[in-house]
Every structure is written in C-alpha cells, then in structure tokens.
Amino acid sequence: EKSTDSSKTQESTMKQKKKKKQQQKKTKGDPKTGQEEESHTCCGCRFPLLFALLQLALGISVTVLGFLMAGISSSLLVRDTPYWAGIIVCVVSLVGFVMLCISYQPDEKTCVQFTVKLMYFLLSALGLVACILAVAFAAHHYLQMTKFTCDTILESCQCKVDTADPLGRTFVYQDAADCGSLTSMLNLYLLLQIALNLVTALVCLSACFVMWKHRYQVFYVGVRFYPLMATEGQQQNV
Q1: Rounded Cα distance, 105 and 44, in Å
Q2: pLDDT tens readout for residues 100-126
Q3: Of 152, 168, 203, 206, which residue is most buried, by most CB within 10 angstroms?
Q4: Residue ranges of the alpha helices (H) in 40-163?
Q5: Nearest to 133 by CA among 187, 83, 79, 59
Q6: What is the CA radius of gyration of the chain?
Q7: Given a cut of 50, is residue 79 above it in pLDDT?
Q8: Among 128, 51, 134, 45, which residue's Cα sits nearest to residue 95?
Q9: Where does 153-214 show beta strands of DSSP type E?
Q10: Which residues contact 42 (CB under 8 A, 6 or more apart)?
C-alpha cells in the first residue's frame, strides 16, 4: 500500500512539472498570451479613447468660436455666444482622460473607478443638453437675421424685421461700423456653431450610449491585433 501511495504521489508531481514546463513554453513561444495580459492595461481597450479626443477637439472649437463671436459686438447675449457649451464638453473630455489613467478593475470593483464612470456619464448627458440648447439658440438667431433690415447709426448696427412698423422691435449691435460685414460674419459664425454643436451632441450621445451598454450589457470596444495565423474578430470587453 505504501509503495502504491508513493508511486501515485510521484506521478502527480511529474504531471505537475510537465504542465508547468508546457505553460512556460507557451508563454515564451506564443505571443498571444503576452498580448492577452497586456490587453488589460491597454487604455484604448478598456475605454473608447476616440470619444474623449473628439470631445476635447470639438469643445475647444466651440469655445474659441464663441469667444470670437463675443468679440464682434459687445451687445451679443450669452446665449448667442455658446462658449459655455464648449467649456462643458472640454471638462467632460478631461474626466474621460482621468478615467483612462485609473487601473482597470472589472465589474467596478473599485469605488474610484465607479465614481469617475458615473461622473463621465452625467457630464456627457449635460454636455448633450448644452449643445442642443446652443443649436436651438443659434438657429433661432440665424433665422431672425435672414429677415433683418439693418442700418448703421452712430457706430452701431440697428436691425428691424419690419421697417414699416414703428413699434417693431429694434435689434442693436454695438461696436459695429459696417452692418454688411457684421451680418455676414455673424451669419457664418452662427452656421458654424450649429454644425459644431450638432456634431458635439452626437459624440456626447454616443459616449453615453457606450457607458450605458458597458454598465448594463456586453459591449465590445477593444480589438486585439494578432498575427495573420490568428483568428479574426476576437474582441475584449471594456
């Protein structure tokens, strides 16, 4: 009985040693295993980095364009110069970059990771609402300007929708010596604001969708790149 027990233990130890050798050979010879381990630390695999970069670029563009519009005339309202929407989107992108720097833990095992993800989702939703409001204000102002009749009076541009109506509302643009150049530049800026804020709103909506899918459903965003002999279509969960 003792001999049989000793033989069994020797066989088990030999099997374990063989398994360890095989695993070491696989890790040394097969590059797939190393890529699988590195995939957990890949920033682009655990979060769509493209969304954060797009939000940063679009947010800066909207902010700069809003300040340029404010420089045309001092009488423009804050709603007509939506630099505030661009600032919100820039803050959202910075939160996304912070989330990239946090070590990956599946299923929100860390409180910091869950808090940053929730903050990014809420700020993306806020950026979406802000961009939609900016589009609405810019479109309303642009439609008004298409009906304006403007005259230059004392270094200010005074515009009316109906010049025959003496009680009609008069829109005054201060610090404007030439009404023609002001209206053309303002129309161009308003069209650019509409286009940029629409694209930014779509990006924020896509980011919210990705975060929601990652939290409640399976959503793949990271692609593993293997040699030609590897099977295609293998993807990793966020």
Answers
A1: 15
A2: 777 655 555 567 777 888 888 899 999
A3: 203
A4: 43-46, 49-72, 83-101, 111-145
A5: 79
A6: 30
A7: yes
A8: 51
A9: 156-160, 170-174
A10: 222
The residue type of 236 is Q
pLDDT at 153 over 70: yes
Q: Which amino acid is located at 191 in the chain? A: L
Q: Which string of b and e fits 131-168 if b means at least 16 CB within 10 Å?
A: bbbbbebbbebbeebeeeebeeeeebbbbbeeeeeeee
Partnered with residue 159 across adjacent β-strands are: 150, 171
DSSP structural state of residue 103: P
The type of residue at 180 is G
Q: Is 152 left (phi over 0), alpha (psi -120 to 50) or beta?
A: beta
C-alpha–C-alpha distance, residues 238 and 235, integer Å? 9
